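Could you show me just one protein sequence together with its fold in token form as a worked example?
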Amino acid sequence: MHTYQLDLYPYLEVKEGIKRVDNKDGVPKGYKSFRYTSSDGDVFDLSVVLYSGKALRGIISSMINVDEIITYFKGGHENLLIVKIVAGLGDYLYFNPDTNENLENVRFSEFLYEGDDEFGMNHLKKILDNIDENSGFDIIKLSKVDKDFTKDIYHSSNFIFDLTQTNDKYVPELSDRELTVTKKNNIDKYPKIQHQYKNPFNVKGIKLSNSEYMKVKGGLPDDLIDEFMVYYSSESKRDPLLVTLRIYSHKELCAPSYYFLSKTNDHGGKWDIREICSVIGEKNGELEKVLENIATNGKLDIGKIKDPNDLKSKLGDISNGLTIDLTKAEGPPGKTSHYVSDGVSIPYKKKQEREKQYTVVLHADIYSFSIKMIRIDEKTELREDKLPPCGTLFRKLKVYYPDQTYKDIVFIELECSNDIAVDDAPVCVYYYSKDGKGEWKAYRLDTNVLLSNAKYGDLEKDLVVYNIRENHGHIDLSKFQNIEKLGGEFNPCIKNGGIERRNKPKNSATKGNKDDEYAEDISENSTRSQVIGYVLASLASVMTIGIGAYLIWPSMRRHIYSSFI
């Protein structure tokens, strides 16, 4: 199956392997549409969606398997209103919530359409007009003109929070589920209220104390949230200053990250938003300083915060990407520490136990993040041309060292966000290691998640690490036949995370091209489970530890090597 990074900017020439056509199917007058499919018509994996070279926020948080992508513009192609991704589960609809913002700052609102009727022109025109007339998608107004369709895209985890509710319970608009409101201890003179639901949820709107709906610069985030807090200026609870949203994470023991929505007198009444990866303390007075700053300045003015405890760096906005600095991980092993890079406090952790015979440091140890730059040492930096497109989301950044001196980096492993709860979901991992001349080179592994006994395992990743270890810190591209037999592919990277294909896809009509990415098909008579035994046996022949009878059981899949490779 092919894997692509897809740029939706209509003036760019599409990459080989992708077909773009003008879409005339049910497009309302005054709007323009394009349809993207693979050239061979097959389903393909989509790793990131770009617009003029930059990742679009809110559109796919992890690699997914898709049939086609359709875009809708207003008039002359400049204002992207809707992105529709047709996938196995249904139609993923991404609506532009703020057409006055540059697309690089917009957080698209995601909805999954599972209605009985086809998503056709009648629905489409109402949504396009809704976005165009309101300078962004407005679900409350859509519900008034098409209530049935709104129900088809509005699911049980979606909520419109009502800040006029300050105690007991209430049922939000467009929902039949109940939220609980709890009064917390004040932060000095500032009241604190929590809105709770029993499971993680999506914030699809916020009704303010004056019964207007909050407008957020660039749109509300679409992440799953597990904590919703509101802070008011006074006991009247008519003037909210700050809403904090804690991002839900199924990664164990990672540092928390938050969205801060702060009131502002700027932007025509739109609220500011920033994503942070630090806890703003209550007992040490940090949160009180934030609230006082908003109340005094009419907005969160970071420059006016007195900073005895690095509060400015804790409030550093990570939404435009992190500058990872590998030279600053100086804390003790076993616990989460922080360093400041490019004005942002970044959590990291030195793992106490060795992993695959290496000492490991986890950088940006949060649920997901994007990267602007990686500083390896005082002389070496991995910048935009050697990293995946800006805005690509990652779930792990591991740096491998030979020992606990934490010197002489052997390699870096950068894993893209993926849906680890879905068996056989696509995933890609970037590796950076030195070549024989001491220059850092990038490689990309395209593979799939396999689940076994509720664990996340990945034999292909272990094969890459084994290759590096056996070749004294370098990567030998001639020794990756086993990955290809498993249906994955390992290739050197070119600019912006694209790959240089080493092999032409079997039975493919598309020509080899350095600009495309793909995962090589395995033969019709071969499956992943059939070749795993072969690969494990190949590894066993060169390893010094015994694994005995485990090799003959395909059901052990790939996770059995995690303890000794």
Summary: The chain is about 15% helix and 35% strand. The chain has a mean pLDDT of 84.
